[in-house]
Every structure is written in C-alpha cells, then in structure tokens.
Specification:
With 282 residues, this protein is mainly α. Helix content is 60%, strand content 0%.
Length: 282
Amino acid sequence: MIGPGMNFDVVAQLQSAISGLLPEMGAFLLLAAIINRKDLVGVVRRLLPAGFHVNVFSFLLDALLIAPLLAVGMVLMQHSVAWTWTGAMGAMWAEFPKWLLLLVVLFVGDAIGYFRHRLEHCKWLWLFHEMHHSDRRMTWFSLYRFHPINRLTTVFIDMGALLLFGFPLWVIFMNALLRHYYGLFIHANLPWTYGALGRLFVSPAMHRWHHVRNGEGVGSNFATVFSVFDQWFGTWYVPSSCGAPLGVTGGGHDSFLHQIFSPFARLFRLRRPSGVGSDAVP
C-alpha cells in the first residue's frame, strides 16, 4: 500500500514493466536486423556492450521504485494545482477537437522539455543528468539510463507545467506516451537525418550529435520531437549523420553503483569553494 486506495505489488509491477519492454525490444531488434542484415553477428555482439548492465539496472530501479513514486506524486500534484484559473483554462481546452488538443500539447510539451533539458546541462543538475550521457554505445535502450533524481525532476517539471496550463490528464499522459516512444526511436543507432524534414522533426542523427563526447555538437540539440526549438534558440547542429565518439569523459561510467552515488559526492565537493569547476558541463 503506497497511499489511500493505491496498492503496490512488486511482482506485478515488475511483470508489467518487463511486458511493456518486450515489444519495444522486439521492434528495435527487427529494425536492427533489417538495416544490418549483412552483419547479423555484429548486431548480436553490439547488443551487450560494456556498461549495458547499467541500462538494465536503471530500467529495473525505475520500474520498481521510481514509477510508483511518480504515480503518487502526479496524483498529489493534480490536486495541488486544481485552482480556479487552471479550471477555466481546462474549460477552454475542452472546446478543442481532441486531435488538435493533442498536437497543441505535443508542441507545448516539447517547448517545456527543451528548456528543462537545457537546465539539466547547468552545473547542479548536470551531476545527475550526466548518467544519461555516459553510454558510449547509445542504443534505444539508453533512454532508460537515467539517474532517479533526474527522472523525478524531468517528470515533475514536464507534467507539472502542463497541469498548470490546465490540460486534461488524458492528453498529458498521451503526450508522455508519444514522447517516450519517439525518445526510444531517436536514441536508436540509426544514421537518419530526415533530410528536409529534419528542419521540423528531431531525427536520430540529430539527437546522436547531442550525445557526442566532445567537440562540435556538445551543447546542442535539446528538443525531443520538434527541431524548430533548437533552430529558434541557436542550438541546432546536424551537419550530417553522426559518427563521432559518444558518452562523457572520466571513469566509472560502466558501474551502476558509481553512477548512482557519485553525483552526491560531487555535489558535496561543488558546495565547497575548492570544488568549484571540478565537474565539466557540456
């Protein structure tokens, strides 16, 4: 029991999380097999790179601990923002056709996500966001490689802001679902730039440039769905498909426990004058 009328079964939660992961895994395995059909052995070898277990443990921690916390937090947040003005805005959104409302929320949600993502690259939040960037063999499964603190702040900022706009819950969760699956896609190891459409939508190549280890591309491409935000605010960078080294500098990125606990130690160092500047932020 995690709240009034809210039961939490660990086994059921884990089964639900894994059953949701299997279709995603199957889809991307099939896509990888089609694209790399002449090198299927190489595809299998790349499925288990160094540090892959970090993604697995991150997924399990998220399913067993973070997801229930987020569920409770979203219920509490919904009740806390039930003000008169949000109710008035909710009445306004109710006049929109559902398909149009979904497009509006996708666009507004991506704008919120763009600025939240830029904030995550500032000194304090980067300590926790760095874990997501540490995967040197980025695949669709890298989307699950998030520090729990980063996951919590991401969801509460993104969904909290949409609640403040008075959007109904169904469209907020539909937006989260679409962004999740599109996020899986743009993290996949695909060279696609979309050509001219890349000026409207974020492509896998565009997001791959966001994950480069150093050099050109660092500090660029913060949007998830619409690339127009990066173009408007001067952070768009897609010269071609990305073949640059990915990840972050430093060690310990293939250790799950290091990834979880090191941000707190570094946060303590940053609070001391001698520690300022010890952690680079891309």
